[in-house]
Amino acid sequence: MLGEALRGQFPALNQEIGGHPLVYLDNGATTLKPDCVIESITSVYARDCANVHRGVHTLSQRATQRQEEARVTAQRFLNAPEARECIFVRGTTEGINLVANTWGRANLGPGDEVLITAMEHHSNIVPWQMVCKATGATLQVADIDDDGALVMDDYRAKLSSKTKMVSAIHVSNALGTVNPVEEMIRLAHDAGALVLLDGAQSAPHQPVDVQALDVDFFVFSGHKVYGPTGVGILYGRESLLDAMPPWEGGGDMIRTVTFEETTYAGLPSKFEAGTPNIAGAIGLGTAMEFLMGLDLAKVAEHEADLLRYATERLDSIDGLRRIGTAEDRAGLVGFVLDWAHPHDVGTILDHEGIAIRAGHHCAQPVMDRFQVPATARASFGVYNTREDIDRLVSALHSVKEIFAP
Ligand code: PLP
Question: Does domain 3-26+295-403 have CATH number 1.20.1330.10?
Fold first, then answer.
């Protein structure tokens, strides 16, 4: 039920670009949405349009019930012990900023260290840089090797009793590297550090079990798991979330308010000030059900096959160099061409109806490490097929004809 069999459920695939049927290979940036997710969002506005948690009337109760069902779906999606440990946020970026600004400001100080890796997305660099600056803590970075794999000796060497938090990407959006997170978490815990995983590129592609991982925080974005934009999940261990100060102040996150003092609500409301993205949360719930219905182990297998096939076919193109050649990779392939800039490649492929991404992928330190200004990236999703990769490879040959000397 993956690949070709799914395409009919994704209306955006049913269009031509420049006279060619669309091949969508930009899933790392965002995924297309299936009918069930679109209908789920539409039905909120068409039928259950009300604010949550505040109304005694039927529409508000329906909206509240549907949003809270989506939270329970998130709990199942991540195998979290409790639904209240799943906080609705705007996406991965907000989830990391929430932890950095609440846990970080309360727990970091001079002499403390936060350890990240050299393959992070900007959203897992900048918030920690900002909070380190504010608290006097130090940001440490574990190296990657020429294949784009984490150098475990360096990771071990940079972990110490000073390390209070390891915040690491699970699957790299620029390199495709799958990090050895089980071992990283075990080592971090042995050193007394907490671990946050940026799951933006893992949650869409493989089953995630926060209990089996024994991870303290896990974040992902709805729009990369076939759900809507503007919503995502932050999972946190209840004991940690309970001890953290709130994030934003406002409605819904309080128990009592006077001008002298405010007491805060329990989880998850404490971290969800103001009217949430109700339709987004409900749409995300439907997207997670959709993915679980496909079986994430099968999704991982399907995309591993596409990755193997793409790697083999791209390696047959003279002058193409893949960036990100670690043994354990998932979901995407990044490359540069001797004879054309990635942006030109992206533009010409678009004329052929093929959507890929070209740029630094919000990972400028990765581009610096590989001494390239940008890469072209083809990233896979549940509806992609080997034929999509054939179209990509054949279009790259046309690019070569235009640019190669
Ligand atoms: N982390 C990784 C690995 C990503 O790939 C992305 C998005 O590309 C993000 C974080 C940021 O996600 P969002 O923009 O949805 O907050």
Answer: no
